[in-house]
Amino acid sequence: MSTEKSVVMMGTDVAKAMKEELIQRVEELKSEGILPHLAIVRVGERPDDLAYERGAIKRMELTGIACSVFELSENICQEEFEAEFRKVNDDPKIHGILLFRPLPKHLDEEPIKAMIHPMKDVDCMSPVNIAKVFSGDETGYAPCTPEAVMEMLDYYDIDLTGKKVTVVGRSMVVGKPLSMLMLKKHATITVCHTRTKDLAATCKEAEILVAAAGKAKMISEDMVGERAVVVDVGINVDDDGNMCGDVDYDAVVRKASYISPVPRGVGSVTSSVLAKHVVRSAEYFRSK
Ligand code: NDP
């Protein structure tokens, strides 16, 4: 095993660098009388949503972006929900909309996906933005978490060209869109899932390994190639009740060249990507 130390990819450092750049862009918009504005639409009070909401509000504040929360009753009917959403969508002062999902079971999100203005769709739920991610068109918005991974690799100068990448997880939130973003950067991608036959060997072959399965510490040291770059997207709770990733960090850190921790890894960059999307949207509407 190599004696070289691994670099810990701190999401908090990536977020800090992004903040500096965004503050300047927000200042420029403000000097033209435009205040970038994010609307958070939340139905009910799921603890996960509330936790993400707190982080998003803080991130917008730090960047100078306005943020309004539209809290809707858990019992709202479909018709009323669509009417409330339409009001937010049509408001010219609002540049980006984050709708927490999944919605309560009695609500259908399909009409919302079709309705949301693609340039306000800062969390990529519109089929327009999804299609753009899959066709390599960078004029739309990718989902925030996969883009956060790309921001992190970029910050640490990790070039993807020609690299063998294994992504564990094929969800529409992380695995699939991330694979497309990496393909756009000329990586050679293998996507793994629960039916993958020899997961350990496929992971070990990778020069860059991304874990996005949602299984605490499932990536053990023997699944990681010598000096691989390891990005951990997972957010789990271990047996002791502590937050942990999909990677057995303490063991893998000795082998990886670069590794992202959990917490303070990818998750710390996600809300910065959201802020970046809101700023891009405000810049787009400025010229309309
Ligand atoms: P999903 O449950 O939607 O998808 C998990 C994927 O991992 C599926 O494709 C599944 O395969 C695959 N998988 C699960 N177990 C295994 C296994 N043992 N071996 C191989 N593949 C496996 O999860 P998400 O994509 O939404 O999230 C993944 C993780 O990322 C979670 O821990 C989540 O909390 C975290 N997350 C972190 C965010 C952040 O900001 N850092 C934001 C969003 C998510 P199959 O398709 O066959 O079922």
Low-confidence stretches: none
Topology pattern, helix = H, strand = E: EHEHEHEHHHEHEHEEEEHEH
Main sheet: strand order: 1-11-8-7-5-6
User: Structural class, please?
Assistant: alpha/beta
Question: Could you explain the architecture of this structure?
Answer:
The chain has 288 residues and is α/β, with parallel strands linked by helices. 41% of the residues lie in helices and 15% in strands. The chain has ten helices and eleven strands. The protein has helices at 11-31, 47-63, 78-90, 110-115, 127-135, 144-155, 175-184, 199-205, 249-252, 267-286; strands spanning 7-8, 37-43, 66-72, 96-99, 164-168, 188-192, 208-211, 229-232, 236-237, 243-244, 258-259. The strands form three sheets. It has a six-stranded parallel β-sheet with strand order 1-11-8-7-5-6, sandwiched between helices. The longest helix is centred in the N-terminal third of the chain and has 21 residues, at 11-31. The protein is globular. The relative contact order is 0.17. The mean pLDDT is 97. It binds NADPH dihydro-nicotinamide-adenine-dinucleotide phosphate. NADPH dihydro-nicotinamide-adenine-dinucleotide phosphate is lined by residues 145, 168-171, 173-175, 192-196, 199, 212-215, 218, 233-236, 266-267, 270.
Set out the fold topology.
Blueprint: E1 7-8, H1 11-31, E2 37-43, H2 47-63, E3 66-72, H3 78-90, E4 96-99, H4 110-115, H5 127-135, H6 144-155, E5 164-168, H7 175-184, E6 188-192, H8 199-205, E7 208-211, E8 229-232, E9 236-237, E10 243-244, H9 249-252, E11 258-259, H10 267-286
The structure holds NADPH dihydro-nicotinamide-adenine-dinucleotide phosphate (NDP).
